[in-house]
Amino acid sequence: MSAPAAGQPTAYVPLRGPDDNPLVSLDLTTEIRLAHELLDRVEADNIHDKGAMIRAAVALMMRLRSLAEAAERGVRQ
Predict the structure, then answer these.
(1) Banded model confidence at residue 1, pLDDT cuts 50, 70, 90
(2) Which of 16, 39, 60, 66 has the greatest count of CB atoms below 10 A from its CB?
(3) How far is CA 29 from CA 24, 40, 59, 67, 74, in A?
(4) In the chain, what are the domain boundaries?
(5) HEC string of the chain?
C-alpha cells in the first residue's frame, strides 16, 4: 500500500483499542511528578514538526490517562 498523496487523509487507526492491555498507573504522587516531567519535556517541541506533535500528543494522552486512573483510585479509597 502506498502513502496517501499530500493533503489526503490517512486511514483511521485509534491510539488505543478496546482489546489493548490497560495502562497501569502508579501512585498519585509519582503520576503527578511524571506528568510535570513530561510537560517540561514536550513544551519545547517544535509546533511545526508533525512527528514531534504526534509523539507529544500520544505521550500526553497516555500520561493523562494514567494520572486520571491514579486520581480515581485515590477517590475510591
Answers:
(1) very low
(2) 66
(3) 15, 17, 18, 9, 11
(4) 28-76
(5) CCCCCCCCCCCCCCCCCCCCCCCCCCCHHHHHHHHHHHHHHHCCCCCCCHHHHHHHHHHHHHHHHHHHHHHHHHHHC
